[in-house]
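question for whoever is on the cluster today: can someone run the full assembly for these? two chains, 436 residues total. i dont have access anymore since they changed the login thing
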Amino acid sequence: MTGCLDDAPPTFDADFIRRLEDLFKWRRDVRRFKTDPIAITLIEDLLEIAAHSPSVGNSQPWRFINVESAARRQAVIANFNACNAAALEAYEGERAALYARLKLAGLHEAPVHLAVFCDHATGAGMGLGRKTMPEMLDYSVVAAVHTFWLAARAHGLGVGWVSIIDPLELARSVDAPESWKLIAYLCVGFPEEEHADPELERRGWQAHVAQNAKLYTR
Amino acid sequence: MTGCLDDAPPTFDADFIRRLEDLFKWRRDVRRFKTDPIAITLIEDLLEIAAHSPSVGNSQPWRFINVESAARRQAVIANFNACNAAALEAYEGERAALYARLKLAGLHEAPVHLAVFCDHATGAGMGLGRKTMPEMLDYSVVAAVHTFWLAARAHGLGVGWVSIIDPLELARSVDAPESWKLIAYLCVGFPEEEHADPELERRGWQAHVAQNAKLYTR
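^ ran it for u. tokens below:
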């Protein structure tokens, strides 16, 4: 790998590529966190990195809220509990018992909660690239979440994406502006344990799922 | 950095983290490709990596089509041309002239075209995590696109995400199953040039946009 000068494109050697694959494979969705605090400057540094993600028309529509208030966190936890109870009702028998035993969020333990939104009122990008696929604005925020996740993991942090949540209620709970759509609610912290296999496999929710990388040709 | 044993979690040192930041910063959306061919085995390897992306309930709903047929590619190009002409009409005067001069896709030159879909009929994941946020299924595919993009860039390949396209017409053009929703149409090839700044800035569409990494607190 050559050094990265300010204006010379970097090249990435086989060793880097192998480590990068390790990063992708060991990323994981984390629900079991240590309660150790995280320096907020580290979160800020990771968001600086996340802000280099692709966004349609360079619109950078991501908005990050650090949810610190205990009362707001309680509201988020109540939101999750209600949605998780409703989700449980969709399963029956053995499957319902399995679901009930899963730990699907680390909202109590994670020292940092990040609510990530897409600002649908942004003027940045001047509409470029999203006339026929307006969902590109939301997708840009998903890419930023994924970048944040990877960068966090490289720093030894775990991230858990909580989607068992009413997104409109959550936006109200954290007092987000009207034009902001919730894309992700993230728990961030140091993981209690690390695994290369998904927790859903380890806990019996699903059999081992081989990676699905089939390439169709037309 | 320690080595990554089969069951020992990897750690990532400062050198790797710096290179990873280079990768994020130099990723870029590419529209200017060399026509040099790419070994399809490399694309397959990159999709193997992409398949390690996070997906809701480990549903892995991504579906990849390698669009090889010249007739299908012509249909895609006609689709893009029509949508781009319609997009141009939304701008006026100087701004329209600027838009008309932008090169917004490398569909003619890129040796590989990948159409990436989300399979809304997949049973994988058994619905877990997407009752209140069904859009999580689409978001999972966005994460896979981003992983593919990063892995491709590490291998020296450029990727351009074409969103100026009618997604339903495109799905028909590549004969995708009914339940597949188009998430991304990707041009892939070796880039003609590499830059750390977005083409939209270099070509005068927008002034320099500082990375937006603001962290709000509630």
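summary bc i know u wont read the tokens: Chain B touches chain A through 106 residues (CB under 8 Å). Residues 29-194 of chain B form a domain with the NADH Oxidase fold (CATH 3.40.109.10).
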